[in-house]
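Notebook B, p. 112. Complex prediction, attempt 2.
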Amino acid sequence: MNWYAIRAIYNFEMARTRRTLMQSIFAPVISTSLYFVVFGAAIGGRIQQVDGVSYGAFIVPGLIMLSLLTNSISNASFGIYFPKFTGTIYELLSAPVSMIEVVIGYVGAAASKSLILGAIILATAGLFVPLEIAHPFIMLFFLILTAVSFSLFGFIIGVWADNFEKLQLIPLLIVTPLVFLGGSFYSASMLSPFWQTVTMFNPVLYLISGFRWSFYELADVSVGVSLAVIVLFLAACMAVVWWIFKTGYHIKN
Amino acid sequence: MQTIVSIRNLSKTYAGGFQALKNVSLDIRRGEIIALLGPNGAGKTTLISTICGIVNPSEGQVLVDGKDIIKDFRATRSLIGLVPQELTTEAFESVFATVSFSRGLFGKAPNPAYIEKILRDLSLWDKRDNRIRTLSGGMKRRLLIAKALSHEPSILFLDEPTAGVDVELRKDMWKVVSALRESGVTIILTTHYIEEAEAIADRIGVMTKGELILVEDKAALMHKLGKKQLILDLKHPLETLPAMLSEHDLLLSSDGLHLTYTYDTQGERTGITTLLDDLRREGIGFRDLKTTQSSLEEIFVKLVEESR
Ligand SMILES: Nc1ncnc2c1ncn2[C@@H]1O[C@H](COP(=O)(O)OP(=O)(O)OP(=O)(O)O)[C@@H](O)[C@H]1O
Ligand SMILES: [Mg+2]
């Protein structure tokens, strides 16, 4: 294992974050605050409580997941796409590193960044609503697992994309809708039976449900199922990365 | 002489079906400077990229220090530094940070003193805190060299290191390259400047259309393929060449004052003695004579033309 290489990639990516502090940290904080103002105040005025939790508090886990997912994907996909775009990937390809080190470096940095972001959003949310976290360790576990698996997913997108449109395509067309329809802002039980069934096919629902359970012990599906889904997703991403590693797909000629 | 890079029957066909390397075999000797010449699209970059791990070979094998570049990629790549043809750099990182990054990537513990030394050698120390995008083209080229040297490689690939570099700087780079060779680094470079190969290389390889058509010691190559010319400054201008001299390969200048005789150094005999005898017999006197040898450039152009 080339530890120096992992450290070099990780530090490089974190330095990139520091250079773009505004857009990587402040922008999500501002957008989260806006969600609170719009959803919390506007909708919260009509739906006071969901299963005994105030609406403002109810949406906190969903909001964190929303940011965690989209940022993990964009950080990791951009991180690996950019060297391909500028050509600096030559250095990575000619270095004594295998895909494992590259993945740990890029995905590790993207996930760290998302976790920092998650913590900031949690703190921001604390300013608007009283927070209680029933199972802090499980919450942390969900956070880390989600950040890692979606950074891995982002990495795959970054490897696959050969132009900027493709880089945006999957996050925009698939991930964002899934997150919005995954119960960030409502409980599945609020839907009609038909839509409840449809929602069950949305993997993000399981994530948000499990994560929310760690806060309020409220869930659309059981926590075990939630955990299984995220672990399954992580395993699937790892398999794809392994395949990329075997074939050199889209990185090498 | 010990072989450090051994290329055996290497072929590369790109995804589109284009064959960029055709059965290339070459042994690179430890400590030498070998220059690869060849027209655009000859396959020089493809060859280098394959050895460095950027391009997957289609057929054949490459051994670096006796180890296979695919099975033993960690060992082989740690030995190699690469300066790519394109000026590809980060934009916002600092000079010092990017060279340190390269060192880490190649698995070496941080060593700021060594990086300082490289940056000083390449006259980049003043720019160490600059963002890369604020460097000039020539500085970026040197930065790429610094990155390639950051992990103390024993084999250095330079893909057109002096493209777009001014004459003075080019000579500075030759000095850097020579100093590296002194320290035992094996250097493989590609270039379109033949005087560059002539100035610093020990051996010359010529590629065209994916084939390595020739590898030869520089001196031997120039000797073998070199045509020499004997130029005579005549005492009195000649109107035309006397018929008797027509069997010699002679050229009379338009002012009639110079005779140029071209001969092959490899021939059985140069024919100079007979020529001089014939001149005396015709009563043609000359004031001075000199010889010139064709440059590598002429040799190279001739080779590539012949293979067309
Ligand atoms: N990624 C690629 N896909 C398909 N064909 C390629 C690719 N890269 C290079 N080629 C082709 O392979 C051939 C050799 O290219 P290469 O870059 O090795 O030439 P070169 O000798 O380095 O030329 P130059 O002196 O212009 O740098 C060219 O015909 C080129 O078009
Ligand atoms: Mg080239």
